[in-house]
Amino acid sequence: MTKYVGQSIKRKEDYRLVTGTGQFVGDIRMANMVEAVFVRSTHAHATIIGIDISEAQALEGVHAILTGKDIDGKIKPLVQFESHCALPPNLVEAINPTIHFCYEDVLAKNKVMYVGQPIAVVVAENRYVAEDAADLIKVKYETLPVVVDPFKSLEKGAPLIQEHLQSNIQSNFHVTTGNAVQSLKDANHILKARIKTPRVSSNPLETRGVVSTYENRTNQLHVYSSTQLPFEIRTYIARSLDLVEQQIRVTAPDVGGGFGPKGGVHPEEIMVPYLSKLMNRPVKWIEDRLEHMTSARHSRDQIHDVEVAYNRDGTILGIKDHFIIDSGAVNYFGLTCAYNSAYHLRGAYKIPNYDSTCQIVLTNKTPNVPFRGAGRPEVVFVMDRIIDMVARKLKMDPVEVMRKNMIQAEDMPYDQGILVKDGAQLIYDSGDYPAALDQGLKMVDYEGFREQQKKWKKQGKLVGVGISTYVEGTGAGPFESAYVTIDGSGQVVAYLGASPQGQGHETVFSQICADELMLSPNEITIRVGDTANLAFGAGTYASRSAVNAGSAIQIASAKLREKVLVVAAAMLEVKSSDLQMENGKAFVKTQPEKCVTYKEIAEAARPGNRCKVPAGMEPGLQVTHYFVPPTVTFSSSVHIAMVEVDKKTGFVELKGYSVVHDAGKVINPMIVDGQVQGGIAQGIGAALYEEIVYDEKGQLLTGSYMDYLLPTSMEIPTVEKSHQEFLSTRNPLGIKGVGEGGAISPPAAIANAVVDALDPLEIMINLLPISPSKLRNWIKEAERKQYKIEVG
Amino acid sequence: MKPAKFNYLRPSSMEEAVHYLSEYGEDAKVLSGGQSLIPLLNMRLSTPKYLIDIGRAEGLSYIKEDGESLVIGTLTKHTEIEKSELVKGKCPLLSEAIRWVGHEQIRNRGTVGGSIAHGDPSAELPCVLTALRGEIVIVDVNGEEIVSPEDFFLTYMLTSLQPDQLVKEIRFPRIKPTCGSAFVEVARRHGDFGLVEVAAVVDLCEDGRFSDVKLAIGGVNSVPTLLEDVERLLVGKEPTEEIFNEAGDLTMELVEPESDLHGTAEYRRELSGTMVIRALKQATDRAQGGRVM
Amino acid sequence: MEGIKIHLKVNGQDISREVDPRLLLSDFIRENLLLTGTHIGCEHGVCGACTIQVNGDPVRSCLMLAVQADGCEVKTVESLIQENGELSHLQQAFSDNHALQCGFCTPGFLMTLSSFLEENSNPSEEEIRKCISGNLCRCTGYSNIIKAVKQAAQTVSN
Predict the structure, then answer these.
(1) Residue A344: pLDDT above 50?
(2) Which of A130, A167, A666, B18 is the most exposed, having the fewest neighbouring CB atoms within 10 Å of its CB?
(3) Which chain C residue has its CA at the smallest distance from A28's CA?
């Protein structure tokens, strides 16, 4: 059956993208179109005393200027996204969460809460004039005390970010299994550590952007946005502007990367449609990179305080974790990252006693949202640093400690004793983690490396190896939709609710559909990214599209095949079980010349007197299927990094990077490998280069590409890749998600490798990125400590 | 991120350019390659009333030999220096350094005059020019003037260039064939401005001692800095591990770095010492091997 | 502001336009000539998405004013395709090797590389990495781009 699933089919998307004929939001041009520019807060926390727009308004070419007052009562504030915040009752009972309501005005009205928050919008002939006008707008502020440190934000009397709340703790919860407190008493040793993952920015090469046009005749807005979630945007425009969803069509055209933060609704995505309706003309807004750095949402920013109970043989008995997420001024995604962190921390390890408390804290920073990995890179960094620290304390090889604590193949399905965020029991469905570890160690010739390493170290060449593993719940629900049809020309067209930002949906989903309908992928048209195509759609995030949209299109295509056969049987006056399909035809198995084409079948299925669709079935050849996964499925991976450290300068060079990963059934290996390599590049960025930095006044210090360092071709090695294929038990094809995976482990693997390279010097790397300045400082501290020990 | 309005002037000769400068200089910016200026215009960190685009001025792009110097016209692009056999032969230090300037796309547009006039303390060309005791030829309506790098670079992004003045050409003294030279730099990523960069030229006596040392450091102080004390320390000494370490230690005393996002002051100070040692060793190796680079 | 008349050749075609002197070349190409294949990623000269060729050399079109291109020969990604609609070797190699995901940065890479490959028929991996180090890609992690360049170089030399 699977002629195309599993093949590295070249992408259908590529032709337009390599010829420069793709269409990104910025490429859209419409008659009479004007451009918007947002005036943004220059203060992290301040009351707006007044806004003087008179000079700006007088400028030639300016069409409109709106401030918070102008939209008061007309546009509702943006509030936390219910679709991502709602929790099932059994989870609520288990973790006892508090989630306080929080919000942000689409244009700040009374006060600003972070640098970059929109305050006013200018619409003008073009971006140049709009920026001229924006420069002439004078905002008078009265500054308020600023909080950028989440611990200070927790203090009594700290200035409130969201003033209707009693404190800056926006949410909290507690998840527990076994008895972690008791394990700390029972263990031979206890390790305590504070482990931090900084704030980073996803930085897709295409910034955000919105084009909106309003059609009077149908009273309809057509909004183009560079988004991961067109359906969500439709919902929020309707809510915010008091419209019904039917009045709004949202299209995600070619989207130049997203990685999470384009999966939410931003104030601009409400404001631009409002303007186009108000002005009755097309309005365009394209975010520039400086705006992107301040105003597009950031991610990560967690601080974990862990206590680890372990025995002298390396067995880890229990972990007690208290962690804080600095959510910035608003928490839009409820417990999404936070609970991901809590339920993923133990990863591939059997740690029976686990206790995790989380506080989500508000500060005067840009809101913090999910980004590729969404809470997992942070805890994998925690867990794998723990493994490494335990190993080094016990003078064991980290691999020994990993093996000692790892879940074995025969333990599958393995119950981690707590719940997934969707309320299902956290049970790993399939996988063999020790085998993956062995496979990885073989790839890098671990034993051989250890021997060689000793020689190198004697020569003063500091080379180290670091390992990280993760298990990731992928393919989150609630559902995904597919509508598959054969049109009057006999063309198979499939519409999907999940839209891509570079993952190759048009290719991979045509492979699945092609196998079901016995065609080649080129004969199938995939349409994505448009709310006009389907009633419901979820979107692309959380490594979910292959699992959910893949399953939806597979089932919808199979149902369509059945229907095609029924109609063909009626046409050929045989039983449908006598028929076979191939190359766009249905034919009688025993008499292949007796056949009908899809075009003829589509014709015969048209409504009317001569319709060949049996009574009781709808005319036409179309099927919609909504796939609802029972819960997430679990992909997993082993990452091994090799580094060389220049002890004098603190520079880390990546000498090699190897991966073994299990993504279940692979639809297109070439694309899966591309996802893994690309994810790892982002992980390497997080490990060594990337960090969003604010000063104590809440001013962003990393506002340009000179300060926020994205890795280039010189920093990213070609990753050695190797696969496992343990099918998921939770969807028909056995797919597990792969989109986020690559990004999860590199910080842990690289940090462990750097520590290993410097051994026997005792370095603690519980902070990222590992910049040369920081590392050099740690080296010196460790040398001083060693010196003290030696000298006494 | 679009530039604010400006009046655009495009002189076709140097004479016309200095004439414009004498008239509008106070309110003007000079545009040559634009690789440093246009980002500032785009971010509206610079909003000049007049933009004087000298890019079309005739006869300002050249690399030629003049006595003991290589003379490079202000509009000469980095790529041209990179590809120049003359530069490679007469001033290999410059050839080596130029490859550290940004990326190819930047070097294809960026000019030597622009880089010098921009006065970024971590830029490569000012560091080389300082080490070699080069000269900057400045022109205004009254004529030409020759300025040393030490007098030219005042502090971060500030030079002695007056509003009515233009950089006409840069003179890089050629390096004697017996010398070894080295340009070393560390940057967070390839193509970034250096955290520290060092330009070194050494010449050795018959007996292997240093007969001449030229040494400058960039990226750590507010201007590219000549390390004359270190030069003096080395001359007459044998190139040994101890003397290199002493040179490094002395460098650390001489520099006055500040902290920024990419490194603390302490880190930069230490890095200065490390990089001076590395540059000196490399240059010495090359001198000993009789190879210039 | 008075417009300034410029004459240039873009993808082989003679163009004369009057432009605002502050208009960036990237915007001129996209907004005035409607060649939207050239993408804008950062507008401060770091990301390389807007790379085009001016007189055969790759440059960042966000760091040039349109008036500076007066009299120049400009090439954008739209010039790479063959007349019969077939992809160039380099474009084909990008597709064959999955050297692009979202495709936003791709035109910039192609314009940097097509000039590079004319001068380097058999580049080493190190040379390729250096060549593209001024173009940021956030999706691919670069390795397939390097593979694609190797393939393109080989196809051309065959």
Answers:
(1) yes
(2) A167
(3) C36
* Single-letter code of the amino acid located at A455: K
Say how far apart CA A475 and CA A744 lie, in whole Å.
16
Amino acid at A430: S
- Residue A385 pLDDT exceeds 50: yes
Contacts of B5 in chain A (CB under 8 A): 132
Question: Closest Cα to residue A91, out of A422, A340, A376?
Answer: A422
Place of tokens 């003037």: B145
Alpha carbon separation from A218 to A214, A222, A275, A615, A771 (Å, rounded): 9, 11, 17, 36, 56
- Kindly state whether B12 is in contact with chain C, defined as any CB-CB distance less than 8 angstroms: no
- Which one is predicted more confidently, C10 or A616? C10
Instruction: Please report the DSSP string for C53-89 in residue order.
Output: EETTEEEEGGGSBGGGGTT-EEE-GGGSS-TTSPPPH
pLDDT in tens, C70-104: 999 999 999 999 999 999 999 999 999 999 999 99
A384: tokens are 């794998």
Choose among C88, C56, C75: nearest CA to C155. Answer: C88
Helices (H), A6-113: 14-18, 54-57, 68-71, 82-85, 89-95
pLDDT digit string (tens) for A720-776? 999 999 999 999 999 999 999 999 999 999 999 999 999 999 999 999 999 999 999
Separation in Å, CA of A650 to nearest CA in chain B: 9
Nearest CA in chain A to C80: A19
User: How much is the pLDDT for A786?
Assistant: 84
B147, exposed or middle or buried, with CB in 10 Å at 0-12, 13-18, 19+? middle
**In residues, how long is chain C?**
158
Is the pLDDT score of B293 beyond 70?
no
Smallest CA–CA distance, residue B244 to chain C, in Å, is: 31
Chain C interface, Cβ < 8 Å to B: 1, 4, 21-22, 24, 27, 43-45, 48, 51, 54, 57-60, 62-65, 67-68, 112, 130-131, 133-134
> SS3 of B217, please?
strand
User: Contact B6/C21, CB-based, under 8 Å?
Assistant: yes
Q: Can you give the pTM of this predicted structure?
A: 0.97
Cross-chain Cβ contact A713/C80 below 8 Å: no
Q: Distance from A685 to chain B by nearest Cα, in Å?
A: 11
Which structure tokens are listed for A352?
Answer: 């029976």
C-alpha A132 chain-centroid distance: 36
B44 has a chain A CB within 8 A of its CB = yes
Q: Is the dihedral of CA B158, B160, B161, B163 positive or negative?
A: positive
Angle in degrees, CA A50, A362, A82, rounded to 5: 95
Q: Spell out the long-range contacts of A784-790 with Cβ–Cβ below 8 A and sequence spacing 24 or more.
A: A786/A761, A786/A762
What integer pLDDT is reported at residue B292 of this predicted model? 42
Distances (CA, A) of B218 to A187, A342, B186: 54, 47, 11
The full length of chain B comes to: 293
Instruction: Report the sign of the C-alpha dihedral through residues A580, A586, A587, A592, in that order.
Output: negative
**Which residues in chain C are contacts of B109 at CB distance < 8 A?**
54, 59-60, 63-64
Mutate to test the interface with B, among A285, A690, A715, A773 (most CBs of B within 10 A): A773
Residue whose token pair is 């250890």: A450
Cα A245 from Cα A229, distance rounded (Å):
15
pLDDT tens digits along A652-695: 999 999 999 999 999 999 999 999 999 999 999 999 999 999 99
Inspect the interface and report whether the beta carbons of A701 and B261 lie closer than 8 Å: yes
Separation in Å, CA of A254 to nearest CA in chain C: 8
Query: Coil, strand, or helix at residue A248?
Result: strand
